[in-house]
Amino acid sequence: MKKTFKTLAIPDPQQLMFGRTPNPMTCGFGLTLGNGQVFPELNFTLPTMALEQTNWPAVVAQYEEIGSIIERAAARLKPPGLMAEFELLPPMTEHPSWGAELTSVLLKHLDQLHKDTGIPCALRVTPTDIRDVTKPPELRSGKPLELLLQSFEQCAAAGAHVLSIESVGGKEVHDEALLYGDIEGVIFALGVLASRDMEFLWERIIATCSKHKVVPGGDSACGFANTAMQLAGQGMLPEVLASVVRAASSVRSLVAYECGAYGPSKDCAYEGPVIKAITGAPIAMEGKSASCAHFSPVGNVAAAMCDLWSNESVQNVRLLSGPAPEAYFELLVYDCRLFNQALETKTENVYQNLLVSSDIHLSPQAYVLSPQSTSRIASAIVRESGHYAQTLAAAREAATLLREGVQRKELQLNPRETEWLERITRELNALPSDEQQMIVTMQDRYGHLFAANSYGL
Amino acid sequence: MQFGAHFRNTNICETDRGIMKELLDLSQLIEQGQSQKALTLTQQLVNSGLPSQTILNDGLIAGMAVVGEKMRNGDMYLPEVLQSAGAMKASLAILKPLLALEGTKSRGKILIGTVKGDMHDIGKNLVSIMLQGAGFEIVDIGCNADPQRFVSAIAEHAPEIVGLSAMLTTTMLNMKTTIDAIAGAGLRSKVKIIIGGAPVSQKFADEIGADGYSRDAVLAVDKVKQFMDRTS
Fold this sequence. Notes:
The complex is a heterodimer. Chain A is α/β, with parallel strands linked by helices. Chain A has 17 helices and ten strands. The radius of gyration of chain A is 21 Å and the shape is globular. Chain B folds into two domains: 2-101, Orthogonal Bundle (Methyltransferase, Methionine Synthase (B12-binding Domains), Chain A, domain 1), CATH 1.10.1240; 109-231, 3-Layer(aba) Sandwich (Rossmann fold), CATH 3.40.50.280. In chain B, helix 2 (14-32) runs antiparallel to helix 3. Chain B is elongated. Chain B is α/β, with parallel strands linked by helices. At the A-B interface, loops of A face helix 5 and helix 6 of B.
């Protein structure tokens, strides 16, 4: 039975804190999240190499090496716990037994680490959403869906502790809308299409998790809000647009929790704090220590409410110091020592304030990620019913927050950004409250990009 | 600036000045993304008997050149660029049949696709749009295109330039297999190959035998122009 969230699990923004949630949970080899500590989440990937049957042994050897690196580094650095995330590459999802085999390899190393050192640890496995292989994507049937679900099944059976995904339903419209700065299209893609696909997909993921007693971690609006963030970072889109997309994308990610997920959310889900405020679930976040994977304007503020702190993804290549996964694991461990020292000495509010205030005045994208902004956006969401209405409310609240921030001189926008914020506000205010009316208009505008039956429309 | 310098000629008569002004107006309408007004003015210029090539070069492409420069300098966002590109495309639709009648050759044809195993297409689509705005003809073979699809498309469309896109470290190696397949089909000498995408670099381009690399859509247009200038 699906949940609906009508109130906030954490109503007071002062209580939106790293390392603490009202709903801590335990997974893997005794790793308890949200209960007073922050843990590193190491996310890794292959160096540049072919990924095919003919060189499969070399691929497996890479993950064996990464597993050994984790064991060695953890023994050296002694974190209070750790999460390892294995993100499957598309061919590994297309061949479910490959993902399962690598899951077993990594699990073996974590098991050994736990046996040797007692360090609590867990393995998150994230299959790739390969359903967009056709255009328009066929999301509710076909071989890609079959393989994706088999991937979840086999990785769960192989012993994954947490399952997640970065699903892409609605992205085919969102990408186009984003490029054209069409906020109406963005809201449609997130609030109508993506939310429907999330429900479809997560019902199935939850069933697999229940069957294998695996934790359903969350999803991520990476393909929506992080795409916007990266394009804004390259100067191609206004930052204010990326900020509004970030807020609006929280609703589609929340759907996983409505279906039964209970975290930890995905590291690249920068909308995680909104999820935490609403559900009370622990969240993984990434920021400054993910610069091995991509740059961002939210490096510090992204840490403000995390329960797992991630590096997003690092290739197994050699740096001057040693293997890159070990170098970034060390970075994460030191970051977590600061979080946990602050919690232990009851100076977490001071440290959080430093993380927040060092970023939020410099970028609208950072401004909407503060605990206060998070609480406002989360409140706007739970006040509404229906994913479209919630998405629209979140977007409008983000635009309002930015305008207020400028008025209070907490945020400065250049004239072009200001012009765009005015335009976005106007266009959001003009959107219909009637979802059906929106669907009819958008089918006309974007109908060539999506298959209505992929969304039950 | 290019436009003014081109026409800085004190011997031009009043009629020419009038035409110059209208072409300048057209380029500005394209720059501003005013599709309907640009369409109307384009039709007027066609009706006045001005060669379509002149309208294309000094009205439409001139406007998009300013757009490209502004984008390079961070003075225009993508939605604004795409609005301009849309305005150009609408006006170009009027000119295309006339250009064909005039026997005007296209500025060049580029075949573009994302390599096998890769479904990312935003970057590729941006490059296509920018190249079209610069007056090039695009053949887009989409995503997840295996080497044979590239080979067949090159044989069919005879582009001067082939663009390969990849966003993953595991798919970028398919750029090499694609280049090898093009060579194996005896087509390598007929095309210049440019690569792009987050994980690739000039060094990688050199290693796999590509002719060029571009970091973003604006630089891709520059690279294509360089290659076309060398071959024309």
